[in-house]
Amino acid sequence: MHDLVGITVFLFVFCFVVFFMPEMGGYFLEHANFQEADALKTPEHVPPVWYYTPFYSMLRAVTVPLFGIDAKFWGLIVMFGAIAILFVVPWLDRSPVKSIRYKGWYSRIALLAFTVAFIILGVLGTQSVSPGRTLLAQAMTVVYFGFFFLMPWYTAKEQTFPEPARVTGRWITWKQIIITLGLLAALVILPLKAVGAESNVELDHVEVNIEDQASLQNGFKYYMNYCVACHSLGYARYERTANDLGIPTDLVLDNLIFDDHQIGDLMDNAMSTENAKNWFGATPPDLTLIGRVRSPEWLYTYLRSFYADESRPYGVNNKVFPNVGMPNVMHELQGDIVCAGEHCELEHEAGTGSMTPEQFDKTVADVVNFLYYVAEPIRATREYIGFFVLGFLAILFVFVTLLNREYWKGIH
Fold first, then answer.
1. Is 339 helix (H, G, I), strand (E, B) or coil?
2. What's the whole-number mean pLDDT along residues 363-380?
């Protein structure tokens, strides 16, 4: 009976994740789950599941060979050592008290540093390698092992708090909790921001709203006119999309289906695999789930970042995806874009393109909004149901709390 409060809180958090953040930024449902497997192509970066990433980050942090043995071997030793050292903690801790409640400030500061290092290593393990990230991972690896190697010293030297005969009351105040969480967040976020700034391209912000039917309809129109000839939407159907976007099916048949497809068919294209490889060197990927693989900001910036480059087969390159093997299919809308200066600042040549830069940005935003929708058409319904589920659990929490208080009122 008295466990109902904890169960209700767990269900609230669990349902919030299920209905509003099922992917959790790619940590719970990794982006690779939404990509077709290709046995002939190895991704540049293959991170492990999130609960292994701190140790994976330590493995990559070792970059110097020793005694003629490759650094990868020593990285493996460090990774397994980080796990094995956890088993000897009872012998490393020389403190006369065992609970962190009564340990001294040395132990508390060391635990804070360990927590910061572990979280930072976990985040770095999900990201690609860069000099700054490698340096930060090396520093955090030293902090991680320092927590254990110095434990016999600081647990023996520190002044502990007296243990009461019986544990009563709260041992930490809300003020202390808030200060600790704020300090922890600052110590984690600031170093990650410093190395995160090493990204080659700053992504532009874009608003996505799957309730905006006008935007979705416009995005659908431009996708079917400029993109679907190469990039199919093989997991979505014309009829479902038309109904969701409020478009009469006869208008879709007359204006957005350019071959012999019927309204109930999947949105495939007529390009054969052989022709695709001859023209592009590889089959253009299906983009049904690209809105779950890439963020809206990445898609928005990518579609606006093509520029003239005569060294490339199609005469264009892309600032977000260098040496991409596709033409700028929206060139007639966007116009000529040149890469100027040492940092390749993209500049629009006045008088080119059928749209102004502002109109083109709006069109691209609509296409991105459509791709965000088509990656999960049920998203709006999922979130709608989630509000009712969380509302029910919130009301249930009030009743189980009152029940719990009644259950314990005679117990001291």
1. strand
2. 96
